[in-house]
Design a protein that fits this description.
The structure holds 2 protein chains of 2 kinds. Chain A is mostly helical. Chain A has a domain of 114 residues: NADH-ubiquinone/plastoquinone oxidoreductase chain 6, subunit NuoJ (Four Helix Bundle (Hemerythrin (Met), subunit A), Up-down Bundle), CATH 1.20.120.1200. Chain A is 74% helix and 0% strand. Chain A contains 6 helices and no strands. Chain A starts with a helix and ends in a 5-residue tail after the last helix. Chain B has a single domain, classed as Helix Hairpins (Orthogonal Bundle), CATH 1.10.287.3510. By secondary structure, chain B is mostly helical. Helix content of chain B is 75%, strand content 0%. The termini of chain B are far apart. Classes of the chains: A mainly alpha, B mainly alpha. The interface between A and B is large, with 87 and 76 residues.
Chain lengths: 167, 103
C-alpha cells in the first residue's frame, strides 16, 4: 500500500517534470524540470530495490549530467533574441502525435500481454556487493568497452571545443 | 503493484521524450529529450531485472548511465561549438547539409 502511494507520487513528478521540460521556452527551466525527473527516477530505482543503481543515478545523472547542463546553459548566456523565434504550433504537435501514438500503443499492447510479476528477492539484491560480483565476473568485457567509450568521449569533447571556428 | 505499472510509466516517458525531440527547435530541449528517452529505457531495464530476480538488467542500466554521461559531454561540446560559431541554438539555422550547392 505504501509502495503504491510512493509510486503514484513519483510517477506524478516524473510526468509533470517531463511535460514541463518540453514545454518551457527558457532552457534553464527545462534543465531544472529535468533535474526533477532525474531525482524521481532515482526514487523509482529505490522502489525497485536497486540501491546501487539509485546511488549511481544520483551521483552521475543528477550530480554530473544535470549540473554540467546547467553550467553550460548559464555560461553561454543565451540572449532572448537568440532563442528560436516561433512558438510550437498546434499543427506540429498534432502531426508528431500521429507519428508517436502508434508506437506507444503497440508498446502498451505488448506490455499488457506480458505475464510477469514481482517475486520476493533476498536482501542482497541490488546492493553494491552483489552488483560488483556480477559485474566483474560475467560483464567484464562490456565494462572495459564502456571505459574506452568514456575515454573517447573525453578526447572527442576536448577536440570539438578546441576546434577553430570556421563556419 | 505489478511490473506493468513501471513499464507503462517508462513508455509514457519515452513518448514524451520523442514528442519533445520532434516538436521543439531549441537544441538544449532536444538534448534533454534524448536524455529522458535513455533514462526511461533505464527504468525498463531495472524493472525487468527486479521481476526476473537477476542482476544482469541492473548491470546493463549501470553501463547505460555511463553511456548517458558520455553522450552528455559530447552533445554539450557540440552545442557550445555551434553557439560560438552561429550565436543561436535554433535548429532551423543549421542547414549546411541541406544546401544543394554544398553537395
Amino acid at each position: 500500500m505504501l509502495e503504491s502511494i510512493i509510486f503514484s507520487i513519483l510517477a506524478l513528478f516524473l510526468v509533470i517534470g517531463a511535460i514541463s521540460m518540453i514545454s518551457f521556452k527558457q532552457s534553464v527551466y527545462s534543465a531544472i524540470s529535468f533535474l526533477l525527473v532525474m531525482i524521481a527516477m532515482a526514487g523509482m530505482f529505490a522502489l525497485l530495490h536497486q540501491s546501487f543503481l539509485f546511488l549511481a543515478q544520483i551521483l552521475v545523472s543528477v550530480g554530473a549530467v544535470v549540473t554540467l547542463s546547467l553550467m553550460i546553459i548559464t555560461s553561454i548566456n543565451i540572449k532572448r533574441d537568440n532563442l528560436p523565434k516561433h512558438r510550437v504550433s498546434p499543427k506540429s504537435i498534432f502531426l508528431s502525435s500521429i507519428l508517436i501514438l502508434p508506437i506507444i500503443l503497440v508498446i502498451f499492447k505488448a506490455i499488457s500481454s506480458l505475464d510477469i510479476k514481482f517475486v520476493e528477492v533476498d536482501s542482497s539484491f541490488g546492493t553494491i556487493q552483489s552488483i560488483s560480483t556480477t559485474l566483474f565476473s560475467n560483464w567484464v568485457l562490456p565494462f572495459e568497452i564502456v571505459s574506452i567509450l568514456l575515454l573517447s568521449a573525453l578526447i572527442g569533447s576536448i577536440i570539438i571545443s578546441k576546434r577553430r571556428l570556421n563556419l | 503493484m505489478t511490473p506493468h505499472h513501471f513499464l507503462y510509466l517508462a513508455t509514457i516517458l519515452f513518448g514524451i521524450g520523442l514528442l519533445g525531440l520532434t516538436i521543439r527547435k531549441n537544441l538544449f530541449v532536444i538534448y534533454l529529450s534524448i536524455e529522458l528517452m535513455l533514462s526511461s529505457v533505464n527504468l525498463i531495464l531495472a524493472t525487468f531485472s527486479r521481476a526476473n530476480n537477476s542482476q544482469d538488467g541492473s548491470i546493463m542500466a549501470l553501463l547505460m548511465i555511463a553511456v548517458i554521461a558520455s553522450e552528455a559531454s559530447i552533445f554539450l561540446a557540440i552545442i557550445v561549438y555551434l553557439y560560438k560559431s552561429t550565436k543561436t541554438i535554433d535548429t532551423e539555422t543549421f542547414t549546411n547539409l541541406r544546401n544543394e550547392e554544398s553537395i
